[in-house]
Design a protein that fits this description.
This protein is an alpha/beta fold. It has helices at residues 34-45, 55-68, 85-94, 105-111, 118-126, 153-165; strands at residues 2-7, 14-19, 22-28, 49-51, 103-104, 139-140. It folds into 2 domains: 2-68; 85-165, Winged helix-like DNA-binding domain superfamily/Winged helix DNA-binding domain (Arc Repressor Mutant, subunit A), CATH 1.10.10. Helix 4 (105-111) crosses helix 5 (118-126). The chain starts with a strand and ends with a helix.
């Protein structure tokens, strides 16, 4: 069973979901297609969705609160990330980007020893279902522009600026 809660943040509410093995979803509730994404997740786990919390969601709520206060720079949560091998590799690479720093999609592809795959890397970043914890907001365009964030570019800029303060 997938448990779901809503978490209030300085950037607006976020929908969070977890199964007994760990966190499987965290997105801003303002994101287009949110309900569809959660339903796809239920299909991928072949289970149902029910409001309510579990230990993983309680830990997520606590760690997000610490993150937004500038007290947490790394998350120590169990994550469950269904996807292709390539997607999971991209998401693991995202977790290696230091707090408060940004890189380009090309730099991320180079980190994976696959510089020609920068467009595929960008696509995999876009399919990340665990915002902030898997920090796809730390990836920007090669020219330094804010590009490609499902939660909205205003939120991406806010997150980058927030991390740079601490």
């Amino acid at each position: 069973m997938i448990r779901t809660i809503t978490i209030e943040t300085p950037l607006g509410d976020m929908a969070a979901a977890a199964i007994k093995e760990g966190i499987c979803f965290l997105e801003f509730t303002s994101r287009p297609g949110l309900e569809s994404e959660i339903n796809k997740l239920a299909q991928s786990f072949n289970t149902t969705i029910k409001p309510g919390s579990n230990r993983h969601l309680r830990a997520l709520r606590r760690q997000l609160k610490e993150y937004f206060r500038g007290k947490r720079k790394e998350f120590t949560l169990k994550l469950v990330t269904p996807g292709t091998d390539f997607q999971r590799e991209v998401w693991e690479t995202l977790k290696k980007i230091p707090y408060g720093e940004t890189i380009s999609y090309l730099e991320q592809a180079k980190m994976m020893n696959n510089p020609g795959a920068f467009r595929a890397v960008a696509g995999a970043n876009g399919s990340n279902r665990i915002a902030i914890v898997i920090p796809c907001h730390r990836v920007i365009g090669s020219d330094g522009d804010m590009v490609g964030y499902g939660g909205g570019l205003d939120k991406k800029k806010w997150l980058i600026d927030h991390e740079r303060k601490f």
